[in-house]
Design goal:
By secondary structure, the protein is an alpha+beta fold. The chain has 5 helices and 20 strands.
Amino acid sequence: MNRSVLSAVAIVAGLGAWMLSGQNSEAQDAPEPVKDSKAELMQVEVIRSHAASVLRTVSVQGQVEALRTVKLKAEVDGRVESLPVAEGARVKAGAQLIRLAEDYRPAQLVEAQARLKQRQSDLQASQKLRKRGLQAENKIVADQAEVEAARAQLAQVRYQLAHTRITAPFAGVLNQRDVEVGDFVERGAQVAELVDDEQLIVTGQVPQHYAGSLQLGQVVAVELVTGKTLQGAIRFVSATAEAATRSYRVEVALENPEHQRLIGLSASLVLPLAQLQGHWVPSSVLGLDAGGALQVKTLDADNRVLERTVSLIRTDKEGFWVGDLPEDVTLISVGQHFVGAGEQVRPVQPDLKQEATADASAH
């Protein structure tokens, strides 16, 4: 019985040894896995960019003003007789706005005309007598002075009579009227305000380091506070800076043929400075170096990370235009915060990545 048990144990031990020897040989024959060097590289998304011509601009705050605004004043005394034009009405140049009473002025005109006629007759008579030697030279001079005095008096009366009609010096809107029928106005008193709203100007103050780049006639974008954008042209840049702010006044001419109510609105002037070569980048690409300067991370031909300092050319609603980069550059757009200068990475373009995902989904 003991011999049978020993035989069974020996058989089981032999089978186990045989099975273990087979597993060991398989383990020895199995090839070692090949390490994928690319799997160890950090994957980053990149943008391949080619430099484009971009206009560098500066935006300054300003306001819309009328090109011409005049406060009309009475040039003679008188009582307001009638108001031919309503306040707020649009008028042509020369239109009568306010009429003062003529009162005694027509009679003064007749008197002045008669006096001039008399003085001229006296002078002619003296000249005839002088030719006959019957009149002294000083009498001729006195009569000539009388004639000139009569002419001056007539001119004054005509002036007084003409200025009882207050007219528009140019086409515009009667924006304000300060008198009513029956009011008595004195010479020099303000009676109305006329505004030319067909031609406007937008004024602003430009910082001193930008003023030298501006040229008359340059096209300027005018962004109104209402959200509307118009175009104008630079018509004036002051020759001297304001003492308090060291800024220069700039005026941009703006046409307003439809007579929109724009006067007094706040506006931003987007002034052109220079045409430069730059790259557009999303805001996520920009970072700061140790010194606080703007920088981006790019790749060289071996896909190694380079840190490049850039200058800001201008901004828009979706990103930035930057300079000081090569004409063609590969920018790291995602993952730049996890890689350092000199590190080799595996670049992936977002559009190619999306196409690969779409192909994989289709299969």
